[in-house]
Design a protein that fits this description.
Belongs to the VMA21 family. The chain contains four helices and no strands. It is mainly alpha-helical and 105 residues long.
């Protein structure tokens, strides 16, 4: 679980840092070629690249999440048994003893 949180925090940091760095670099003429652009073009290009950088980080985070092994996460056995029992009760028509379900009826 710690590895998942670490990946999430790192991805979150990059989602904040990269767009700000791109905007700062364009607005302070740190990137080559940005001095020849008009202010309007500079704003549009830097904003577009900032948005693209966030999307790249999101795609990278999704790829990391999909590569995680699925056998590592085992559900709680008592939770699974309880869920199966509740599904059987709902499908068989037996009245439930769960107070939340009684409220819904």
């Amino acid at each position: 679980m710690a590895g998942v949180m670490q990946k999430f925090l790192i991805a979150s940091m990059f989602m904040w840092i990269l767009p700000i760095a791109i905007l700062y670099g364009f607005n302070h003429d740190l990137l080559p070629g940005s001095t020849t652009l008009s202010p309007h073009s500079l704003t549009i290009l830097s904003g577009f690249l900032a948005v693209v950088s966030v999307n790249v980080v999101i795609v990278f985070y999704i790829c990391l999440a999909l590569k995680e092994p699925t056998d590592k996460h085992k559900p709680d056995a008592s939770f699974v048994a309880e869920a199966k029992d509740s599904v059987k009760k709902l499908t068989s028509g037996v009245p439930s003893t769960d107070p939340a379900l009684k409220k819904q009826e």
